[in-house]
Prior knowledge:
The chain has helices spanning 6-17, 27-36, 50-58, and strands spanning 25-26, 62-68, 71-76, 81-84, 91-94. By secondary structure, it is an alpha+beta fold. The protein has a domain at 6-79: Winged helix-like DNA-binding domain superfamily/Winged helix DNA-binding domain (Arc Repressor Mutant, subunit A, Orthogonal Bundle). A hairpin with a 2-residue loop joins strand 2 (62-68) and strand 3 (71-76). The structure holds zinc ion (ZN).
Amino acid sequence: MDDIPITISIRKIIFENFNDDDLRFNNDQIFEILKQNKIIESSLTIDDMEIYFKELCDSEILRNIAQNFTTQWFKLFESLNKVQCVSCKEDSYLISSENKICQNTSCGSSL
Ligand SMILES: [Zn+2]
């Protein structure tokens, strides 16, 4: 378990699996990948993830298009771009309208 914020891990998963603005995907699919890759504690539930998906909706990365009980369906407003930071070599996953700043919280360099 490392210190990468969960929203950054979710952005990476979206980039690697669902990076198409025509595609529908849901929180359960991303939650499964987070668990399979041991990115999150196994004790966490889908409800614990809600704040992170809300954050991504608030930053207009994700659009919540439907909800069925705890399953939330999303689409991307636009596909994410992977940008490697020159300074720390970490990858950031950003949409075109976002500030080009490294998402590694201990770095924060301009990209
Ligand atoms: Zn950086």
